[in-house]
Design brief:
Helices cover 30% and strands 21% of the residues. By secondary structure, it is α/β, with parallel strands linked by helices.
Length: 317
């Protein structure tokens, strides 16, 4: 029997991408709601409780309200909002971090999809902390350049205006007060004593991103060279279907002199790059903010939760 899926908040970018990926699958039946009732809590609750799985693609307050209306214990929920990401009774949906986390996702009824910036950061920082290579109080910094599609309907519309302000064509740093909503999950999931200094940058392209974490090798608890770090990540993510560590990036043999943040737009996988010299290393995660950073990660978690191959219905090349 097909999995009955309801996408609550299907009008946003994440919801639309979910519907696009799932609509062609024969093992999924998408449940729909009258557009006039899409904000009616009672109507949404009725459909949600008849589903096998509900994706929440909503603002935080609306996501919490939707969860309270789902009373059937048989309904799985995958929440793409920030509302539940650091709660102990929800499972964080980043299966590549460990075998234990993948097993938790398989057994869970309440799963939260990581934020896009946090996806890249945690895949880079969490293994270093878990292995004792970086101490919990390592002064992590993260720089993240992203397309504007992750900023919501109003920002997407603003970027599409012909008479938009001239500065929209220029990359712009934001969250200058260091209060970005992804910081709590970046700290908790990576097991850090303090949140990283975080520099997100929005640029004039629709989708794609690169999250970069610079490393001072002399400050590591277990000193490694940049090449040894590359080997560490290659071993850590060996065999993963959605996360691939690209070849060793030595100064003398860079296959790419620049990382194009749009290179994986439209895809659901993620690439990790390690490069550097004897003193410093650069760790970079490149992916689509709407793919592995949102709907792709959500579908991956759905597949694991229902015992399906985790890349079912995803675009990986």
């Amino acid at each position: 029997m097909p999995i009955r899926v309801f996408i609550d908040g299907g009008e946003g970018t994440t919801g639309l991408r979910l519907a696009e990926r799932l609509s062609g699958r024969t093992d999924v039946t998408l449940l729909s709601i009258d557009p006039a009732l899409r904000k009616d809590e009672a109507a949404k609750a009725k459909i949600s409780n008849a589903a096998d799985l509900v994706f929440l693609c909503l603002p935080d307050a609306a996501a919490k309200a939707a969860v309270s209306g789902i009373t059937s214990p048989n309904v799985k929920i995958i929440d793409a909002s920030t509302a539940h990401r650091v709660l102990d009774d929800w499972t964080y949906g980043l299966p590549e971090l460990s075998t234990a986390r993948r097993e938790q996702i398989a057994a869970a009824n309440r799963i939260c999809v990581p934020g896009c910036h946090a996806t890249g950061f945690n895949l880079l920082a969490a293994p270093l902390a878990a292995a004792g290579i970086a101490p919990p109080d390592y002064p992590f910094t993260a720089h993240s350049i992203t397309g504007f599609s992750g900023a919501g309907k109003a920002v997407i519309a603003a970027y599409g205006q012909s008479d938009r302000p001239v500065e929209y064509a220029i990359p712009r740093q934001y969250a200058l007060t260091q209060n970005h909503k992804h910081l709590p999950e970046m700290q908790k999931i990576s097991g850090l004593a303090h949140p990283p200094a975080f520099n997100p940058i929005i640029a004039d392209f629709y989708a794609g991103m690169v999250v970069t974490v610079p490393i001072h090798l002399r400050l590591l608890q277990k000193p490694l060279s940049a090449q040894e770090l590359h080997q560490f990540f290659s071993d850590y993510y060996a065999g993963q279907k959605l996360v691939k560590v690209r070849g060793w990036q030595a100064e003398e043999s860079l296959p790419e002199t620049m990382l194009d943040a749009q290179a994986l737009a439209g895809r659901d996988d993620l690439e990790i790059f390690v490069c550097g010299n004897r003193e410093r290393a650069i760790l970079a995660a490149r992916f689509d903010n709407l793919g592995k950073g949102a709907s792709g990660g959500a579908i991956q978690c759905m597949n694991i939760s229902f015992g399906l191959p985790e890349d079912t219905g995803l675009v990986l090349q």
